[in-house]
Amino acid sequence: MLEELGIPYQLRMLPFPPRVLAREYLQDNPLGTVPLLCDGDIRMTESAAMCQYLAARYSPNELDVPVSDPAYGSYLNYLHMGEATLTFPQTLVLRYTHFESAERRQPQVATDYSRWFLARLRAVDAALNQQDYICAYRFTAADVSVGYALQLAEHLGFKAEFAPNVAAYWERLKQRPAFQRALQVQHDAALAQGVPTIPSPDIR
């Protein structure tokens, strides 16, 4: 999101989970969750809210969709769908297949939420029938939100089950220069800060 905006920022990388491996982080974010956005006195812990805030504050009518635009409702819907509907079930798959100890893993839970995610991905497929991006016939912050869910899905091995519209859309998002820059910045920051460069969904 910040690379799309083209504004300067500092990226602090943390070992996962930070509430266990970086206890001092709890002083900044008592929830112990990532990400955390700090913008002056503003502190935000909800990913979709961060996207909405950054788009409205730093790129009105560009990555944002104004209230007067007929696509405004669709924009908000998909902006929040990315986190609440598409990412949430995948976090449970991740937890109960990778992060829990062997005796606490729940294969049936993981299977159920995998199906839940793939079923809800049909809404993304339908939205892409008439346009290249998720709403407003252009790239917006909603694509950042939905794109993150697709990135996580690829890490979890769901890419092969993407419908053609979704697969093509994800490839378009990955080719954006800002996305490529963000991956490189993340990698470089992890190296510089002594944090593992392997994305947490790939940790086994």
Quick recap:
With 204 residues, this protein is mainly α. The chain contains eight helices and two strands; from the N terminus they run H-H-E-E-H-H-H-H-H-H.
Keywords:
2 strands; two-stranded antiparallel sheet; Glutaredoxin; 204 residues; Glutathione S-transferase Yfyf (Class Pi), Chain A, domain 2; 8 helices; mainly alpha
Can you offer a commentary on this structure?
There is one protein chain. The protein has 8 helices and 2 strands, in the order H-H-E-E-H-H-H-H-H-H. The chain is mainly alpha-helical and 204 residues long. The protein has 2 domains: 2-62 and 186-196, Glutaredoxin, CATH 3.40.30; 72-178, Glutathione S-transferase Yfyf (Class Pi), Chain A, domain 2. It has a two-stranded antiparallel ribbon with strand order 1-2. Strand 1 (37-39) and strand 2 form a beta hairpin. Helix 3 (47-58) packs antiparallel against helix 4, helix 3 (47-58) runs antiparallel to helix 6 and helix 4 (72-99) runs parallel beside helix 6 (141-155).
H-E order: HHEEHHHHHH
Overall domain count? 2
Q: What share of residues are in beta strands? A: under 5%
CATH C-level name of the largest domain = Mainly Alpha
CATH arch. level architecture of the largest domain: Up-down Bundle
Which stretches are poorly predicted, pLDDT < 50 over at least 5 residues? none
Q: Please give the oligomerization state of what you see.
A: single chain
Q: Helix and strand layout, with pairings?
A:
Blueprint: H1 2-5, H2 18-21, E1 37-39, E2 42-44, H3 47-58, H4 72-99, H5 107-127, H6 141-155, H7 164-174, H8 177-192
Antiparallel strand pairs: 1-2
Helix pairs in contact: 3-4, 3-6, 4-5, 4-6
